[in-house]
Specification:
CATH topology of one domain: Hypothetical protein af1432
CATH class of one domain: Mainly Alpha
Low-confidence stretches: none
Radius of gyration: 19 Å
Distance between the termini: 34 Å
Order of helices and strands: HHHHHHHHHHHHHHHHH
Largest sheet: none
Strand content: under 5%
CATH superfamily of one domain: Hypothetical protein af1432
CATH architecture of one domain: Orthogonal Bundle
Length: about 280
Amino acid sequence: MTTLQQLIKEIKHLKPIPAVANQLLAIVDDPDHSMEDIANVIQYDPMITASILKTCNSAFFGLKHPAESIRDAVSLLGTDQIIELALIKSGARVLGTSQEGYGLAKGDMWTYSVSSAVIAKQIASRLSLENKATIFTSALIKDIGKIILEKHVSHSDRQIRDLVETGEYSFREAEKKVLGIDHAEIGAMIAKMWKFSPRMVKIIRHHHLADESLIQDREIAAVYLADCICMMTGRGVGADGLSYRFKSRVMEELGITSDDVSMIIADFGMNMEKIEALLQMA
């Protein structure tokens, strides 16, 4: 068993996501927010500002006139796109490392996280869910607990594998059985310590839907389904792979069909150029 005190100590030493991420999410939650509000938050983070301008002025976006400031970028690309770029850059500082315990080389978790966030946004749009920025960000950082647990998973790899191979345990269940806690729970602890909203903490904690009563929570269900679809695409998937239980009731609850999933995967594939451009921000 891994002691909770030990894990909390490790969380406190984890490089935090920049404060600009929390500030942006707070602004998005305000229905009266303006483009000026968003620009005012981002412009004081030089690394994020430089990265956003670089991405905006890349060939992918094809702007006729280069953006010279965050205000230009917001005006040219719109608030939703700029918020996503800022949140992605914020996450890159934490999620770009390797997690060898989960079989993830450097950049794998980053690739998976961005892909999952993009798919989550597709689902949120298809379902006309309101809190798209919260859903996008929750999907982006939902696996952050793996950063803390990876060495503990590595040390207990054989025990976890043995349980998974019996067919009676999903990877998350085996992880919790052996370590006493799973990466979703650790992720929620990190999100809470970093003062993310209670809503985001809840989505991160339940993104594997261990508590099936939460299937009726459409935002949690959307992030869960995005995670499953992302695994199907194989982008940045680690050693845990598809060692999770798929809860088909989620699709029934959301009104998503197998044809819809095929369309989501097809749209994701068509957006690969965009995703690669976003990944280059790391």
